[in-house]
């Protein structure tokens, strides 16, 4: 039986949004996968490292997919519910989870790690990444690219022409070089997202809070109803995400 707008809104508004696991969206939304397989490559690199740091680990779900970890393995996270979830998931694997505000400085000594990683960091402090890397160490990460999911964001906020240029991969590469890192590899991808009900939209905007800052169901109920009607009419709402894979290395000197 088809659910009403009110029922869908309630489902999206009451779903647990802690952690960085999006399995609640199964059957409600889909996103194309990147061609490079970040989790697989991350696992391979962790298996060769001696000391690793995963920045902004979320609930630790992606990091926990690794087959093994180096003797020293650390992850940072700022949001308390995610810290708790990551601790439960990663501590049994020997990974120490550190509560960190995602602002400089990172709470680690210079040259502490030979591998620093991150998947979809909200902020990127290149000088700190370079500082905590050992000479010859690697930063390996998947970043969100420019204008990602802006079809959805602009549905709620209107045109965002300046924000569309944020997270440009070439600009990030330039910032990494300015911090003393060498760009070894930089790949980009544009991926199709399909959203099948308004509950998925509410869930996403509650979880990815920087998409529509200050989002509440009550504050955006009219736009949510309009989006519900679009999905009812077309069967789907389509958006596009952008991603880039970054590999950077600290020089030996």
UniProtKB/TrEMBL annotation:
It comes from the Bacteria. GO terms for molecular function: S-adenosylmethionine-dependent methyltransferase activity. The keyword Coiled coil does not apply. The keyword Methyltransferase applies. GO terms for biological process: methylation. It holds the Pfam family Methyltransf_11. This is Class I SAM-dependent methyltransferase. Residues 53-140 form the Methyltransferase type domain. Keywords: Methyltransferase, Transferase. It comes from Microbacterium sorbitolivorans.
